[in-house]
Design brief:
Blueprint (H helix, E strand, L loop, with lengths): L3 H15 L3 E5 L2 H12 L3 E7 L6 E6 L13 E3 L8 E2 L13 E6 L2 E4 H7 L3 E7 L1
Antiparallel strand pairs: 1-3, 2-3, 4-8, 5-8, 6-7, 6-8
Length: about 130
């Protein structure tokens, strides 16, 4: 697999479109950090890291509205990719949906949202947008 982050995002996106409650994806350090951020910001219901083989897996319970059954994640989009890396300095951090969504960045201080990066005064690689 050449791009595990795009694979992770595509599995989550496809599971949401199919209406699945749980999605399972291979684990890497970056996908574990992205999963933690999605949980902390309320986009997923819960997650579990399973270390059964060399790589491990992440089991994610997706979040839907109880009455309307609409997913909490409307769109999840890869920004920086192996063929074209996208970086943002601290003065040019992206705003997703005028602040309603989040941008996940990989910085020298770890993986964080754009708001946390602005507080810590760091820039980095823009991994994805979620709203």
């Amino acid at each position: 697999m050449t791009d595990p982050i795009a694979d992770f995002l595509t599995r989550v996106r496809n599971a949401i479109k199919a209406g699945h409650k749980v999605v399972e994806t291979p684990a890497t350090g970056l996908t574990k950090d992205i999963t933690r951020i999605l949980y902390d910001k309320g986009y997923i219901l819960s997650y579990k890291f399973i270390d059964d083989d060399l790589q491990g897996k992440i089991k994610i319970a997706l979040k839907y509205h109880p009455k309307t059954k609409l997913p909490a994640i409307k769109q999840i989009q890869r920004v920086s990719r192996p063929g074209l890396r996208r970086y943002a300095g601290v003065d040019e951090l992206p705003r997703v949906l005028n602040g309603l969504g989040i941008a996940i960045l990989s910085t020298s201080h770890g993986v964080m949202t754009e708001k946390e990066a602005a507080k810590e005064n760091v820039g980095g690689e823009v991994v994805c947008y979620v709203y």
